[in-house]
Amino acid sequence: MFARLIGPILILFIVGCSSLPTSTPIAVDPNWTSDTLPNGFQYHLYPIEGTEVEMRLIVNVGSLQEQESQRGYAHFIEHMAFNGTEHFPDNSVFQEFATVGVQFGPDINAITDYSRTVYKLSLPDDGKLSDAIKWFRDIGDGLTLREDQVTGEIDVIFGEWRFDNRADASWQLKLYDTLLENSPYAERDPIGTEATLLAANSDDLRAFYDTWYQANRIQLVVVGGFDEKTLAAEIETQFSSLRTEDDRPEHHEIVPLDKDYRYPLTVFAPQGQSSALVLSINEGGYIPPKTLSQQREMWTEWFVLDAIEQRLTEQLDRRSIAHNGLYSSYAFAPGLSLFEIVAEFNAQDRAEVLDAIAGDLASLRDNGITDSEFASLLERFESWGYLLDDYLPIEVAESASEELYYNALPQDGQQRLENFEQFLTEVNHEDIDQRIREYLTVLPKSLSLIYVKNESLAGAERLKSQFFAKLAKAGDAVDVEYSDVNIPQPAILPTRKPTTKSLGNELYTWTMPNNVKALFHHMDDLSLTSHVVLQARGGFASLNRSERAAVDILYEVIRGSDVGDIDALDFNHYLNANGIAIEPAVYGRSHNISMSVQSENLPDALNALRFLIENVSLDQAIFDREKERVVSRVKAMNTSPYDAFERAQLGMIYPPQSYDSPLTVADYQDVTFTDVKRVYDKLFRDLGAFNVYVISDYSADAATDQINVYLGNIKATRPATLPKTLTFNQQSDELKKYTSPEDRTYIEIVDVSRVPQRDIKTIFAEDMMNRVLQARYTKIMREKNGFDYDPYFASWSRDGDGVVTTTLTALISPDREQELENMWPDIRKTLVQPVTKQERDNAARQLERDIMNLNSDSHHLVGAIARYDTWGYGTDGLFYPATVIRGIDRQHLSQLSKGLFTGTVRYKSVMRPAPSTPSP
């Protein structure tokens, strides 16, 4: 429930112009109804036709409002809102809303940052809306804050600290911590300090709560299916009596960093992560867009960032310089517009990457982008204009929460779309070049170098001096021209229309001319996006050890190889410009190629997919570069105690021949280009053994024609890849490591056993059982005993495997390990107690709600349809989940759980603090 970053807010809404001409103000979406009560409480209602209701309660209090002795109190109060209130005592809020399918985490949660606390509740309909209003009203001044509750929650918060503060936290987080050094943000981490948390008591927390939870600092956002007049009247009745010391609504304030602040020069990355560089460019004071012209200025900034990113990425690829990714973004720097260019790479390539990027930036500064690059970027922006509108309740609610960070409500969608279309007509090549020159000449810049732990920092200053010296020199002109990509149409076209069979639910199936089965689902998705999945059984379970290692190298080799007579960069540019995303993927027992595209470009996307499958020619030079990168990355991961512990765990459970056994550096070093080609031929060479799954807003007739034209005559001679059965070591074992760099102990207990093959009823029952037992485990570990902030239980049988794996984890204070050890028998006994009717009904509603939500998400639904059809579960369960769920009673669930810990092979692994780790 605690967060250290507010990334999406700043990434989406930062601009860097200190003075802009006035123009038409940005208009608030007219569907919002807002009002302020006499006590200063504000509410904002946004009715949307449908059933789901999204609620956000926003309180203007965070860690920056705390006194030194109150460190962590804002976050502590957030926890206590779930722990007990006047109408929902003793954690009963979770049970109350679980009866309608609400789950802790995705549906009911909260977050505390530096200046706000936001409570979230997602409801399937308005049936519990009155109770939700009552709970939010309780949060205002009805927390019980009993002393026993406070004492019990201290361990939970420390558990959250252990969960969030790993020594191998990402280098981005470490850089962020260093960036904020000597600022209020560095000194006011929302989770607080050990001293203040241990000293916390009910009286002190209540004093903080009474001071800051005032009506004029609180706003309520409700979005979705409800009667507006009825809800407004209920809100006014409930919240008009909320205490306040000032009836004027308080604006949310952001404490800015120093305007001259620059990134640090050098930081260490955690073990197991790649080296990196971060070039930060400080545009000065941050001003959110308030007018349409300012909004177009913001989009111009985005255009510039994409232009820089595109040039740097493609030039690294053209030079065959291995790298682990390059991107541009805005940094979390409150009050500032701080833009950064980030490149990750292998340590041995640091000097080469720095030299190349400095030269390319100088070239951009002095020569600008080419006409071809400008046209490419403009095409890309034109392809994602539809993404600028929110249409689901959760999206509207999240957008409102983000905008209220800046004391505004979301913009009218039609105005935004029209303004974006105007931006596309106004943006010009000369202006973009001028902005790039300003970025790379005038604005303050600083360079951070990220070194993997245990690397020497010797030479860092010299490298930075060389970088800026190269950047200062005149840049060479680079002639970047993209060839016009003309993907030929299929040589063979269907001679007759196939006979389709309706499966109901606007689902149709037929056999294409190449004897490949196709399945199409018509869905009026408001995002106007089409999705295609080519799926087959096989995956890692069909590969030997060297082939499994080859897969990690294969993806980039496919992306970097020419397709027929089309250069790889030109082909990828064509895909990007048309908003086409094509991704091969290999999973445990299946593999696929997925594609997404805006529906109006579906024919072109299908043709590109066909051409790629038929004509990609894997490139030896790309293989050599990618292998070097992967081997270096795996070597770096070997330095991490967490990765080493995970590999040891897997090695304890799975023998070397098992497809789940851990791979070594030697496995990757031994991969040859022949291995990669063999894996590609084995998994992806043609459509043999694949089925085709498509979701689109196309009509069934039109979609059938398009799918047959472009996919119906691809060769389908590849033999089926038969997945091998998962093997595991048959003797129970225990692993103990004293390698944790923090003062915490991690325990994982895994039980494995053979089970009969599953059908759809068993799959659903297994899902429901997991929900019941996870709730029980959370109650034992977190609510009752305060062992762990985020205890994890899972028991799953993978598709087609005939093996069930049950996992229990605990991340705890080392001094409580023996206490927990003594409790494991009782914990297992509690977990397998007969399932109650209430538990069964709650799990049933949660599962049904999740599946019904899936039906509004075309991207995830196509994957679910592919999975269910591939493994013979049928698709009726996706469209009519209640019919399956009704047949699962609590006796069925009890029987499933009863066998989890009997007749199994058990493995236990414990990671304790290293001997040098100091005790708190």
TrEMBL record:
Keywords: Hydrolase, Metal-binding, Metalloprotease, Protease, Signal, Zinc
Cofactor(s) essential for the protein: Zn(2+)
GO MF annotation list: metal ion binding; metalloendopeptidase activity
Signal peptide coordinates: 1-27
Domain Peptidase M16 N-terminal: 52-172
Residue ranges annotated for the Peptidase M16 C-terminal domain, each copy included: 201-377, 670-847
Listed InterPro entries: Metalloenz_LuxS/M16, Pept_M16_N, Pept_M16_Zn_BS, Peptidase_M16, Peptidase_M16_C
Pfam families: Peptidase_M16, Peptidase_M16_C
GO process annotations (BP): proteolysis
Family the entry assigns: Belongs to the peptidase M16 family.
Name of the protein in question: Peptidase M16
Organism: Enterovibrio coralii
